[in-house]
Amino acid sequence: MKRLIAAVVLIILVTGIYISSYFYIDRVCEETEKLLNECVSAYNNNQKIETNITELENYWSSKEKVLSIILNHNSIDEIELAIESLTVHSKYPQNEMFYEYSSTIDIMLHQIMEDTVPSAHSIL
């Protein structure tokens, strides 16, 4: 009976951790995507983009420590490098590489969300 109680407690604990980490990842990806869209719209309108990109960099830097516990480090590092490249290419007007890196970040964020959604493939 003690083993059964321990097993049930562990299942509840693991399920709770998974659900809370899923919602955390979802919230971080949505906020990052929102900040990225603000950067792209400011870049399209030829506005000052430095504050938007700094805000995006600071937000991602503050969240990457917790995300590294939950997610694969490669995807986090790739997004960080793409944000840094976005910063470099934002200094030049109408640079196609800016749009390339912004779409890369967007794709990586969607991939992270798809990877965290429970499915038969991810469970097995």
Give a structural overview.
By secondary structure, the protein is mainly alpha-helical. The protein has a single domain, classed as Up-down Bundle (Four Helix Bundle (Hemerythrin (Met), subunit A)), CATH 1.20.120. Helices cover 85% and strands 0% of the residues. The protein is built from five helices and no strands. It has helices at 2-44, 50-70, 73-89, 96-116, 120-123. Helix 1 (2-44) packs antiparallel against helix 2. The longest helix has 43 residues, at 2-44. The radius of gyration is 18 Å and the shape is elongated. The model has no long low-confidence stretch (mean pLDDT 88).
Offer a few descriptive terms:
124 residues, Four Helix Bundle (Hemerythrin (Met), subunit A), 85% helix, 0% strand
Please specify the SSE layout and strand pairing.
Layout: H1 2-44, H2 50-70, H3 73-89, H4 96-116, H5 120-123
Helix pairs in contact: 1-2, 1-4, 2-3, 3-4
Largest sheet: none
Q: End-to-end span in angstroms?
A: 28 Å
Mean pLDDT: 88
Helix percent reads: over 70%
In DSSP terms (H or I, runs of 4 or more residues), the helix count works out at 5
As a percent range, the share of strand residues is: under 5%
CATH topology: Four Helix Bundle (Hemerythrin (Met), subunit A)
- Poorly predicted runs: none
Count of domains: 1
CATH class value: Mainly Alpha
State Rg: 18 Å
Assigned CATH architecture: Up-down Bundle
Oligomer: single chain
Note the overall shape. Answer: elongated
Number of strands: 0
Helices and strands, in N-to-C order?
HHHHH
Output the structural class: mainly alpha
